[in-house]
Specification:
With 1054 residues, the protein is mainly α. The chain has helices at 3-10, 33-54, 73-78, 86-95, 104-107, 126-132, 141-145, 156-163, 169-216, 226-237, 261-297, 299-314, 317-344, 350-383, 399-410, 416-451, 458-465, 483-500, 506-521, 545-571, 630-652, 655-658, 663-691, 711-731, 750-776, 816-846, 851-889, 905-924, 943-965, 972-988, 995-1010, 1014-1037; strands at residues 787-789, 810-812. This is Exocyst complex component SEC5.
Length: 1054
Amino acid sequence: MAAADYVNSMRVFTPAHNYQPAGDEGRLPSAPGTSHITSRKLQEMEAQQDVARHYNLPSAYPDEWPAELDLSDESRDEAGPSTQDTAAQAKWRYSGLYGDRGKSTIIASASTQQDEPDPLGGPQSVMELLKQRGLPVDEDARLRSRFVLSSTSFSPALFLTHTRPTASAQSLLQGLNYLTDSIDQESASLKALVESNFEKFVRIKATIDNVYEEMRDDGTQNDNGLHRSLSQNARQIGPNSAGVRKNALTEANEYGFKGINAPFTEASEMAEELWGEALNGRQREEGLKQVLEAVEKQRGIYEIGTDLQKSIKQRDYDAIIEQYTLARRYANDAKVLVDRATSTQRSLTEDQVHTILVTGRMWMDVEKQIQAFKRDLWRRLSNAQSTKQLLSANGQDGEYMDLIAILLELGVDDNPVWVWLLSRYDYLKTRIASFCERGRAEIEILRRRLASREKPSPQSVASYLRIPIREAARNYSDPLDTEQILEFWGCVHTFLRKLISVQGGLLGDVIEFWDTAQSFINGSKQKLLPTGFEGESRKHHRLSTDSINGLKDGIIELVNRIQVNIVSLFADAPPDDLSFLSAPSATSPMGTLTPTVSRFNLDPKDIPPPLPKTGEVWAEFAFWPPHANSLSGVHYLGQFLILIGTAASEMADLSPISGGSTTYDQLKLLVSGTRERCVRATCAAWNSDAEHCKYLEDWTRDLERKALTKMPGHFMAFESAILTGMQKILYISEAMTKPGSVDVVTPPPTKLLQMVRSQFVTSVYKALSGLVENAERPVNVEGEDEWVLIGPSFSGTGSDVPSSVSVYGGIDSKNRNVRILLTLSNLRALRAEHVPQLITSFESAFAVKLTDESKTIQDVLGQIDTRLFQSYTRSVVDTLHTMILNGISSADWVPSTSRPDELRPYVYTTMLTLVMVHTEVSTTLPGASSSTSTMSPASPSHPLTHAILAELLTQISKSLLEGFMSRPKYSLPALMQATLDTEFIAQTMSQYATEAAGQVQSQIYLELDRRTNNEARAKLQAELGEMRGVLKRLRERTRGEFACFKKVRSVSSK
């Protein structure tokens, strides 16, 4: 387009103060044609200056872009207020319309209606946003115009719905602030534009009116004044002055527009390019105001989604319920609005449509968040299994009640109470099955490992049976068995504790689950639960009859599962197949419930094979560790039965079971059956240990009673511990039961009592048999030396003490006589004290009388005592018998003098033998008053010393009788010698005289009297006085040698 035409098109925008009313000054001059041309050039120059001044250009046609126009808005602001006039300021404000919008919009006027920046301040244009949403805005101009702010068909609701479908309230508020600032800028610029160019609009209007009148008159009339005539003359001067003017309004020249169509089109395009955005600003302003009003009006709806998202992240349940309730009210209001319009056949207003659309989008967002939140709540409710761990600090119900409450507030189809109860039931059922399967596998693996080990020696077994004598009734801290066996017992104990313990065990979880279920059944828990929006969740506050019956059946099933697993452990044989075993991962919830410590890892590839059948009693019991002794058995089995009895009572007290279920009878069978199996296993081990009781003899003296070894005390302590443990096993008296609860622990049957009774008597017999075996044949104790010295001992022995007899305080366990003497002493202590105490303890513990058994045991003890006593004295008696017979039958026995005054050598030999026996017995069996540091011949002797010497005196008398009877006749000297020998022995051993010995001595004198004549008898009577003197002198002379036979007299105070 030519520069002149461009200037003519811009001439209309001359400043308002140049406008003058129509008159001579305002008309075109009536000068010749050259004047007219000069006037147009002046006008063109003026227009070019206006354009350059308006756009801050050095000229209307600059060669390069001015550098000062590249300054940013901030730089212009920092320059401070200008000193330009009001018009210049207005132009600058108008120029600000182009600053932040980009120069591309100014250059390409055609893109004004095609696209525009985001009115809410986004980085992308409107069309780019819509294209990302998949809208065909390039093909559909009408659709595009609905989103262009400068379009008259702009729809705020449609704009927000498609350009901001997921915008948060915060981003919308930011866009609102940006929109407000833009409106303020555009309004000020538009106002300044109109004020500064108003007179230009008036002048161009007047010019257009004059031109129109001239063109309408075809140039033939000049009735409208000087202006028209001059204009007509000026046109006639030009080259087209002939004929009708080219601008005449005729059909041929398109009514005057034929020559100016092209310039007008170019001017229109230039005007659109320069002023289109400014002119469209008002439309955009109106659109932005509509958007602003819509956002402000529906601010609450826009903010719900963001607030709800924030509350869900913070798990602020109260805020979630409040916001969701508000959203539901908005949705209900929108629904009511639609229903009312439908029923009344009325169209909705644009505001109502916008409200419905915004509410719908909000509801979709809220519902999406709430559904995701509900899924999370259901998941957490299913995982909230341990109600004990979910108690809050104040003792109130914990998370699972909160989850149920929030679900009821939000409104759900399924009953969260029932869902939680079902998930809890399934969890407990699975947990019981998995735990018992793994626990029994661990127990069986440990049992197989123990069985594959070498059988312990009897001495090793006896070392654990040797309980401290005077600590049997106290807490015994030393190990009761080997470490591996104790580990097995610990494994079984942990298994039972974690399965049936009320505190921390699976049974405790089952009981707690039923208590919680009962509170939901009777409605006490529902008092704390909400009813939901408009009471919609009240239907979930009551469980149906079928649900209640299902819960009762579930409790019965859980109890049956526990009961079956316990019965399987104690009543069934050890399992042969462990192929079901699979070790759970450390992260699984069952991985923390393994009965044993963490170092026990199950490897399915390294499972010991089943054991061959060897006939061992323990092979029949899955709960009994191989080679375990009875002491550890009664200790742990007593604890097991306390757990089982307490658990059975707790399970029987549950209302679904106590109300007549068959499970009650099964629980009674559980207790009685487990007790019977425990008694059988213990009795078998007791019987085996009784055979090992002989190894309790370590040939060391009792610390308080030196005439005894420690064996009677160890045996007493062992049997007492077994009886105490058996009493706990049979009666389970320590099992805890609630007051008034059903008792499932029944008294032991007579069959079990008889089994224990028989085993008790058997164990005593076997122990006594072991005593005899120890005395007759030495039993080596592991680590034993030939001499076992307890307490101080003498450094040497006298010449009259045989080497086979140890000094007081030490025991020569290799000496048979020493063993027999100590065994005799032990037997007498057992017969007099220990066995009667054991019988009394048994009768008291089991409420039975052992009259026959007690008599039988005493008879057996007597027989054993007699047997050992004779075993000890027989060798001495045989020696003395031979010695006496040989002495009496010797040729030099008859004295060569008429009055014998010496004893025959055999008498001294016999007496010295008795001295040796006395020494051996009294040294081995010191008297009750003997101390550990002194040994006086005058000390009171042991009762067994008197019994042995009395028996030997009787046997000596019998030997004398037999020896004297071997001679046919006795002369007076021979008669006197026989009397001296007999009386010396009788008087020296007078304190050991017995009725049997006295009778034998009387028989000796009768036999002597038969073998002499009357003369000898008469002379003997005359010699009796002299014989008494000789006998007295002989006793005085041997007083020191035979002082040990002197009767000890108590010293009385004077």
